[in-house]
Amino acid sequence: xxQTTAYRSLYRVxxxxxxAEVVNQRYPVQTLQHAIIRGEIAHAYxxxxxxxxxxxxxxxxxxxxxxxxxxxEGEPCNxxxxxxxxxxxxxxxxxxxxxxxxRGIDQIRQLRAxxxxxxxxxxxxxxxxxxxxMLTHEAFxxxxxxxxxxxxxxxFILATTEPHKLPPTVISRCLTFEFKNIASPLxxxxxxxxxxxxxxxxxxxxxxxxxxxxxxxxxxxxVLLEQLVAYAGERPIELSDLTELLGLPGQESVEGFLxxxxxxxxxxxxxxxxxxxxxxxxLALFVEELIQQGRDRLIAALNQKNSGEEAADWVRLSGALxxxxxxxxxxxxxxxxxxxxxxxxxxxAQTPTPQPKVKRSKAKPLVQAGAKGERxxxxxxxxxxGPEPVASAGKPETPRANSDxxxxxxxxxxxxxxxxxxLLAEAQPRREGRKLQIEFEPEYQFHKEQLAKAENLEAxxxxxxxxxGEVVEVGVSFRAASKATASRSSSSAEAPxxxxxxxxxxxxxxxxxELVD
Length: 517
Ligand SMILES: [Zn+2]
Hints:
With about 525 residues, this protein is α/β, with parallel strands linked by helices. It folds into 4 domains: about 25-180, Rossmann fold, CATH 3.40.50.300; about 185-245, Helicase, Ruva Protein, domain 3 (Orthogonal Bundle), CATH 1.10.8.60; about 250-350, Zinc Finger, Delta Prime, domain 3 (Up-down Bundle); about 375-510, DnaA, N-terminal domain (GMP Synthetase, Chain A, domain 3). It has 22 helices and 9 strands. The strands form 2 sheets. Strands 2-3-4-1-5 form a 5-stranded parallel sheet, with helices on one face. Strands 6-9-8-7 form a 4-stranded mixed sheet. The protein is elongated and about 90 Å long. Zinc ion (ZN) binds near residues 70, 76, 77, 80 and 83.
């Protein structure tokens, strides 16, 4: 970094100082410039948009342009005393208020008192209230009174990331502009310019990756670039620096995973997930990267001739990854969810035609509580009765001669339904006459829920009939704890979260009742 800017943040140095430097906000910028040229200044503006999209920068430029004595074509000169003072933040007449830390009625009352003093140095006094949605209800009411009877030569610029939280009465008093997120190629181009001026060496793909991580916020991109400069020291910035700084999954993991998804290599998928988990990588960030780069592959496929099939593959995979991202937020074990979903995706690709479905009958309660309460119902879910045993049922199919039926079933599942196998591998079987009950420990709630899905139960019932022969019904439940381990042990440090404990306890109590066929 050059000497002059060594102690100033890149974000401040490269903050736009005139409308021409603002990236990607053509509509608000042009409209404001025209208003300045025509001298038609409103009393209140609302700038709405995501963080880092230039709202307060544009507000400052606007404040300069309407006050600059040498304004040209709606642009401030940035040379006169007025412009310089506003740029420094030293003007008495351009007041920036952070709505998040000045949200009370007292601050707005004070503002209302000051508003009536005429501007000291310039034509227009400008109040810029950032994060205005953070103001309290009372503060909004006080602000509204000012907006309703605006003093002359005073104007307000309200900025917010969450316009839906503003009272409609406030919005209706303002001229509203929406600030768009900045597309990552535009951010990357700006980063390139900054690197050139600051003599920072970085490859285009590194800058593109920084731009992607910034998610439409120029400020975040510049802050990240600065962190990377500090991290790399004198040497050029590498993509691996970004990976290390943010704890991102390595590019080879992302590419390897997408390749494996495409060729349905489930072993490789599990290997990559295990590797990421061992290295403590954030799996949510990993899925984000998969989505980004999966989308790149989809677009590449669409741009090629005769690649309809590949494009269709990526449409399907991208959709599944987006769904996975949503589910990850709620999952208590991200690794298991990722594993199961990855295996499901492989399976779906390998079996394009639906398998013949087992006829379903209405689920009937598997468990009855000692006292007939509402608690009996949650555990009773997920029972599928298959059709009557067929003639060949007497001769069960056992893949391995000497193995017990459960091992045989697992073996069969591993070969034919690998996602089902991933669930069953954590379960214990229990036979009850003609029924096969699949039981999970309380911490395998996810497995239990997945297995209880109709399509999985049907597949399981079909496999079970082939192995056990006479079994016609399968059920899924938590395992009943012995009395000695109930309630007390659930307070140990290793126990699952409180909600899970409560559920497990409820299920234990319910299962304490008699099991019925
Ligand atoms: Zn000026």
